[in-house]
Design goal:
With about 475 residues, the protein is α+β, with helices and mostly antiparallel strands. Helices cover about 15% and strands about 25% of the residues. The relative contact order is 0.11. One of its GO terms (molecular function) is serine-type endopeptidase activity.
Length: about 475
């Protein structure tokens, strides 16, 4: 027993404790990363890390696909396709923060991988590491919303550095499901055919795509082979999954049917129906089934009756599309819980999508959250509530500027699994010992963004 004690405490414990100090204090656990450099894109480029208020690079000693996998995962860019070395995306400048990075591939952040102490390296910038992620090899193009739309449009893939389309032979919801997963766009509701989003140009890369729905990437599915097809661009495949960039979670309910937006009649409209809409839009839970003014055009649904557990509003019982006895004075609406939180970033003017000062709406007024005990668990809940992916940091001390007005929450305590920030323990609304110099914020991956289902939307207006 004495021998074990002396070995453990005289030798192994100091080593373990030294590693503990190195791991937790050499670099911030949730350091920000970005991809940049010559020829870089959203999901490919030179890897850079933000540390000590400066961006720096990563040396390619030992750099491999496992390391790249963690970077791609951290940036919500799908899976790693390559781990370029020797400054493939050009030489960086400034510090070289990491060297001898060794990841298993399962880590959540690159900083969690083994590496030399921050700033210690034997490299120059001609050895800067890079990544190419699968998220950069597929895109959705929607002529109605500018060239590239994040979560709805014509499917295009990048092969041999050229973008091309996918033929719709055999195209079905399983194929669309893989595209949605690859682009972090949630669940596919349909798979459009016959150039629904317009005809593409150039190559037709894939035909007879056959996915089970569980693949990580469209190119993992069975297909004829790149460039082998019997199609024209009149058969380009599409995915009408979600609309990108919207943060609106309250308004008049409209659904897309027969290529036309139309409203829903409020006969028997209740909180269960609203709950399904909020869930379908990724907007949290229903707060009320409200009225938001008159729409126009078709009235698609009437006498909607949901249990509250359906995945889509159209799964609920109703009279049938276009069958109703209503006018637009009876258009239905919803107010969802996620309309009660926002992120404000002064650098992006007003309300920012996925990084900024946290503000919540209570008692008809927006107010801030005090940063007492604010940590990554709290930021994780905010990110989930806004559909923004994983949290990278939980900035404190008015990192995004001082707010004004009420300070609604203080001493917030989240486990990280709550659906809404207000589900976490806190002092009570309006009870605090803070000033706005302690306003809390969240910081997310540069690629993060929310997307709402294209088949349903809430129109921008105010309740009556």
């Amino acid at each position: 027993m004495l021998l074990w004690y002396s070995l453990c405490h005289a030798h192994w414990f100091p080593l373990a404790f030294s590693y503990f100090l190195f791991y937790f204090f050499s670099v911030p656990h949730y350091a920000r990363i970005k991809l940049t450099g010559s020829g870089s894109a959203r999901c490919s480029g030179r890897v850079e890390i933000y540390h000590q208020k400066r961006w720096g690079t990563v040396c390619d000693d030992g750099w491999d696909l496992n390391d790249a996998e963690v970077v791609c995962k951290q940036l919500d860019c799908g899976t790693a396709l390559a781990a370029p070395k020797e400054a493939h995306f050009g030489d960086g400048s400034g510090p070289i923060w990491l060297d001898d990075v060794s990841c298993s591939g399962n880590e959540r952040f690159i900083i969690q991988c083994q590496h030399r102490r921050s700033g210690e390296n034997s490299c120059t910038h001609n050895k800067d590491a890079g990544v190419i992620c699968s998220g950069d090899q597929i895109r959705l193009v929607n002529p109605d919303t500018s060239e590239s739309a994040h979560c709805s449009g014509r499917v295009e893939i990048n092969h041999r550095n050229r973008w091309g389309t996918v033929c719709d032979d055999g195209w079905d919801p399983n194929d669309a499901e893989v595209v949605c997963r690859e682009l972090n766009c949630g669940t596919a509701l349909n798979a459009t055919k016959s150039a629904h989003f317009g005809k593409g140009t150039g190559q037709i890369w894939l035909d007879d795509v056959d996915c089970s729905g569980s693949e990580r990437s469209l190119t993992e599915c069975q297909h004829r082979g790149f460039g082998i097809h019997s199609c024209t661009h009149s058969k380009d495949a599409g995915v009408p999954v979600r609309l990108s960039g919207s943060t609106l979670c309250s308004g008049r309910v409209e659904i897309f049917y027969n290529n036309t937006w139309g409203t829903v009649c409020d006969d028997n409209w209740d909180i269960n129906d609203a709950e399904v809409v909020c869930r379908e839009l990724g907007c949290g839970t229903a707060q009320s089934a409200a009225v938001f003014g008159e729409g126009s055009g078709s009235i698609w649904l009437d006498d909607v009756s949901c249990s509250g557990s359906e995945r889509s509003l159209t799964e609920c019982q109703h009279r049938g599309f276009g069958t109703h006895d209503c006018t637009h004075s009876q258009d239905a609406g919803v107010v969802c819980s996620d309309a009660q939180i926002r992120l404000v970033n002064p650098e992006k003017s007003g309300s920012a999508r996925c990084s900024g000062r946290v503000e919540i709406y209570h008692n008809n007024s927006w107010g801030t959250v005090c940063d007492d005990v604010w940590d990554i668990n709290h930021a994780e809940v905010v990110c989930r509530q806004l559909g923004c992916g994983r949290a990278l940091e939980a900035p404190r001390s008015d990192h995004f500027g001082e707010g004004k007005g009420q300070i609604w929450l203080d001493d917030v305590s989240c486990s990280g699994i709550e659906r809404s920030l207000t589900e976490c323990q806190h002092r009570g609304f309006g009870l605090h010992d803070c000033g706005h110099r302690e306003d809390a914020g969240v910081l997310l991956p540069i690629s993060a963004g929310q997307a709402d289902y294209i088949f349903i939307k809430v129109s921008r207006s105010h309740p009556r």
